[in-house]
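Quick one, tokens below:
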């Protein structure tokens, strides 16, 4: 049974953008300090005084006034020399006011205009690019935000916080490959993930089809006090999907031992995962104990599962006993035939003869082949009379007549011929292979 990953890990991706957005606001307000020492063209003292006055007004809450006057001041300036640098700063100040007025789209547009002014120092324009990317995301302009993050990354190394934000933006767009690329860089730049980052990473890994990484991300949370059964089911399911059934079984077993996974359904899944994960003997032990103490009903399905577990573990005596129990429980031709064929494959001749006799009495499919197998088993037991009778029955069926005739020819007429000489190797091989 495959357990599909559930919804609990898909949280609001935009939520994680808020810390970066707050830092953007702080940067917008601080950038005007020290203008006289800036790398851009020298500003007149009156321009510096005016910019500082507007900044003080913004700090005192005069948002609308600052937005209006900053725009107006920028509008009347050229894009060259000191005027161009002043124009960029007025636009940046207007962006701060627009952000305070809860107009992130307008703030982003103003910064876009500011960073298009080439006389502005490169470092300032790069910083405005960073801020605009966050503002575009805040405004719901995720495609443009993603474009800006990629442009920024082509010009500079992004800090860890920005890498996480870029991953969030592409995740919101459903661009899972790009989000996964950002995530790889973000994780490399982050020593320890917080809860929000783990949730984002899990969402991206799931959608990008990296189930093993998603399962490992869930495992990071499994030691926490707030984990529940769904966390463990989720991790096991993802390991199954990623082709790691052994790891899935180990996770499920750990959840069971902690008492988080319980009940008959979880117990059966525990057994199936052990079988799929390469520990079928453990599956057989668990199932046998559960059937004995009544935690699981002694149904045909559970008996078959037990027989399959012991067969897979190659515990031959236990497997044959389990198949025998299933055949006696159902008394079906198919169950007796399965027991007989398994016994034949393992060279348990007496089991083969008895089981196939019952299968044939119940009109099993492919009777010619079963008579042939029964004949070979009787031959191996040294019972020439029973072998001959079985081969004679096999000879009446088209599917097995040729092989049966070879056996009869080899056996000859006497029931107690000299030590029952072996027939041709090809005839033995054909009969055993069906």
């Amino acid at each position: 049974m495959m357990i599909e990953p559930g919804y609990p890990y898909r949280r609001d991706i935009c939520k994680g953008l808020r810390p970066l957005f707050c830092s953007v606001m702080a940067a917008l307000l601080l950038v005007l300090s020290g203008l006289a020492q800036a790398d851009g063209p020298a500003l007149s003292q009156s321009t510096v005084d005016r910019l500082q006055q507007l900044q003080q007004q913004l700090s005192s809450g005069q948002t609308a006034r600052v937005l209006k006057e900053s725009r107006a001041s920028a509008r009347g300036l050229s894009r060259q020399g000191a005027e161009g640098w002043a124009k960029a700063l007025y636009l940046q100040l207007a962006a701060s006011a627009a952000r305070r007025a809860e107009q992130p789209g307008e703030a982003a547009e103003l910064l876009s205009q500011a960073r298009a002014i080439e006389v502005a120092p490169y470092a300032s324009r790069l910083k405005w690019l960073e801020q605009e990317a966050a503002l575009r995301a805040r405004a719901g302009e995720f495609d443009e935000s993603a474009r800006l993050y990629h442009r920024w990354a082509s010009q500079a190394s992004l800090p860890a916080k920005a890498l996480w934000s870029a991953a969030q933006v592409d995740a919101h767009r459903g661009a899972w490959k790009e989000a996964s690329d950002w995530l790889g860089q973000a994780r490399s730049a982050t020593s320890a993930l917080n809860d929000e980052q783990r949730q984002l990473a899990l969402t991206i890994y799931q959608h990008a089809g990296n189930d093993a990484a998603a399962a490992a991300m869930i495992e990071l949370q499994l030691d926490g006090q707030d984990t529940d059964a769904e966390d463990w089911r989720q991790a096991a399911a993802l390991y199954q999907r990623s082709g790691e059934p052994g790891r899935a079984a180990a996770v499920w077993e750990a959840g069971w031992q902690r008492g988080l996974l319980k009940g008959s359904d979880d117990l059966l899944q525990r057994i199936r995962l052990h079988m799929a994960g390469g520990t079928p003997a453990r599956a057989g032990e668990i199932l046998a104990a559960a059937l004995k103490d009544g935690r699981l009903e002694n149904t045909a399905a559970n008996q078959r599962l037990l027989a399959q577990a012991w067969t897979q573990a190659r515990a031959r005596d236990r497997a044959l006993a389990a198949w025998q129990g299933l055949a006696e429980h159902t008394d079906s031709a198919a169950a007796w035939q399965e027991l007989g064929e398994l016994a034949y494959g393992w060279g348990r001749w007496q089991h083969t003869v008895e089981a196939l006799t019952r299968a044939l009495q119940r009109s099993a499919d492919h009777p010619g082949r079963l008579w042939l197998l029964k004949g070979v088993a009787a031959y191996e037991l040294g019972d020439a009379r029973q072998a001959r009778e079985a081969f004679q029955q096999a000879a009446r069926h088209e599917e097995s007549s040729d092989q049966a005739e070879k056996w009869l020819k080899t056996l000859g007429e006497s029931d107690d011929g000299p030590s029952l000489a072996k027939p041709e190797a090809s005839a033995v091989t054909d009969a055993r292979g069906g």
